[in-house]
Amino acid sequence: MVKHAAIATLAAAALAGCAVPYSPVPVATNFPNSGQEKLQAAAHWDIIANDLEHKLAEKLRKQPPRPVYLADPAATATPFQRALHTSLVSALVNDGFSVSRSPAGSLKVEMDVQAVTFAENRTQFRYTGGPLALATGIWVLSDIDPVTGVLGAVGAHDLYRYHTSIFSPGATPKTEIIVTVSVGDQFRYFARTTSAYYVADEDRALYGIKDEPKDAQMTKVFKVRGDR
């Protein structure tokens, strides 16, 4: 009797672990693991401007050479948009492109920055393991110093920091921006690239996102009409 009960229990568990062949809606699944940079300094803005320029340059060099034109940022442009404009102009000039001060006869470079706010407390990737798992001795991370001849070495905690430094600390930001840069004329696009980045939540104002005070009260005004 006990044997039959055990077999029945195992069979039920096996059936419970099988997915049904049909579903009224698509089953939610995760994307393959990927990385996305987090912007935390003005130097990062310059880095992504150069990256965007390299992507555009690869496509523009396949076309007949023409000057490009970037309109000055609007008065309402955010600090990020103004800095990105300046860095992109510098990157294009330094890469050998002719950047015109007039739109006449030039390809127009347009930038669009879309800020997106997700829910707080998003899922946070955690690096598996910890310093204790590495505390078995000294690990070498660098070559022999050519002056002293001493082999560079670090402790277990430093090794852990070395391997996990690629990951941004803290919770996954709720704020992301989508940056699109296009090059074209009135008829068609010649080059276009789009990239997404995390933004430190405490820097949202630099990207034009205004938050309501946490203690702000939600109010609604009702118009009272008297009897006639």
Q: What's this, in brief?
A:
The protein has 228 residues and is an alpha/beta fold.
Overall description:
By secondary structure, the protein is an alpha/beta fold. It folds into two domains: 36-125 and 171-211, Double Stranded RNA Binding Domain; 126-166, no CATH class. Helix content is 28%, strand content 21%. The strands form two sheets. Strands 1-8-7-4-2-3 form a six-stranded mixed beta sheet, with helices on one face. Helix 2 crosses helix 3 (79-94). The protein is extended and about 60 Å long.
Strand arrangement in the largest pleated sheet:
1-8-7-4-2-3
State the domain count: 2
How far apart the termini lie comes to 84 Å
What is the helical fraction, as a range of percent? Answer: 25-40%
Instruction: Kindly identify the CATH topology of the largest domain.
Output: Double Stranded RNA Binding Domain
What is the CATH architecture descriptor of the largest domain?
2-Layer Sandwich
Secondary-structure element pattern, one letter each: HEHEHEEHEEHEE
- CATH class category name of the largest domain: Alpha Beta
| Morphology | extended
Oligomer: single chain
List keywords for this structure.
single chain, two-stranded antiparallel sheet, 2 domains, Double Stranded RNA Binding Domain, alpha/beta, extended, 228 residues
